[in-house]
Amino acid sequence: MTMKKIAGLCILAVLAIGSVAAAFELPDGVVITGELNVRRSPDVNGELFWKLKQGDRVKIKAINGEWYKVRVSDGKEGYAHYRYLDVSIWGRVYNQYAVVRTNPDNGAQALATLQGLAWVRVTTRWQMWYGVELPGGNRGWVYQDALEVPQEFFAAWLALQQNMPPPSVNNPSGTVRNTPPPVTREPAALGPAAQPGTLRFQIVEAAMKYMGTPYVYGGQSPSGFDCSGFVWYVFKQYGFKLERVSSSQATMGQYVPRDQLLPGDLVFFDTSRTNTGQVRHSGIYIGNGEFIHASSSNTDGRYVRISPLNDGFYSEHYVTGRRVIN
Questions:
Q1: Is 120 a domain residue?
Q2: Considering 10, 81, 293, 317, which one is annotated as catalytic?
Q3: Which of 131, 195, 216, 323 holds its CA 20 to 30 A away from the CA of 113?
Q4: Total domain count for the chain?
């Protein structure tokens, strides 16, 4: 084999590795202490140049020992100690489906089935199994070959979790156990998902690219979205001409019952305190009882995020679903 061919193969290999890595955005971190110092170097004696408050969100760029390299609001980067940031890892179903089991064993009871493209929170690893958390808090185990996760970052993140203190009020995620706990909750009610290659698949995948984008009132671009602006922008990329505000979007397409939602369907909510059924918020259903939306919640975070549809606030404030994809 000639040197030119070898060089070409090496370039292709680098490009292939880069494309896999690019499929995952590194996660955000949420400050879980009253005040967090950001330093210029990963050291307690490093120069202090920024302070974060409890609930602030930062983009995680890397892990260096016991320190996260973070990007703060003005684009500057520094280091914050891992103990004071709550960081969630998301994995994506690699195959057409993945079975979630009550224990890390192929013979264990099936808890739920995740369809292709579905995203799920990954909490730990046990031998060849990932521990996952389903919408509503159910926990189970998925065989490693069925999930795509950011491998190197996850391994470093998991190593940090093994040294974390027990759960507390300020750190509800707590420690990741070294032994697999059994799951005793009832199976989750998960809906169907889009198959790879379909328009629904493409729209959901496009929406996921904007995870973590900040909420901006009136925003309708990747620099910032409000809820209806996010829905409008994603669908615009595929030739759909949706109305710009949530209440008008809720009149488009066809009504779809909540238990018949498909990925790519639109979901609407009355997020007012009175909850009279007036549409005030919109999102895109992504399957498995979850939807993606530009959240304006001061509690959960003002950014594009995934939330459970069938549990908690959004379940109680759900108004309707609409189908604009034939």
A1: yes
A2: 293
A3: 323
A4: 3
Q: Which of 10, 81, 227, 317 is catalytic?
A: 227
**What is the per-residue pLDDT for 70?**
93
Element (H, E) at 49: strand 48-53
Domain that holds residue 285: 199-323
- End-of-domain residue from the set 36, 59, 87: 87
Nearest to 84 by CA among 152, 173, 178, 212: 173
Digit-coded pLDDT (tens) for 192-210 = 445 556 888 889 888 888 8
CB atoms within 10 A of CB 213: 19
Domain-located, residue 59? yes
Give the whole-angstrom CA distance, residue 307 versus residue 305.
Answer: 7
Domain shared by 44 and 109, yes or no: no
Prediction pTM value: 0.50
Does residue 10 carry a catalytic annotation? Answer: no
281 classed as catalytic:
yes
Which tokens is 146 given? 């069925």
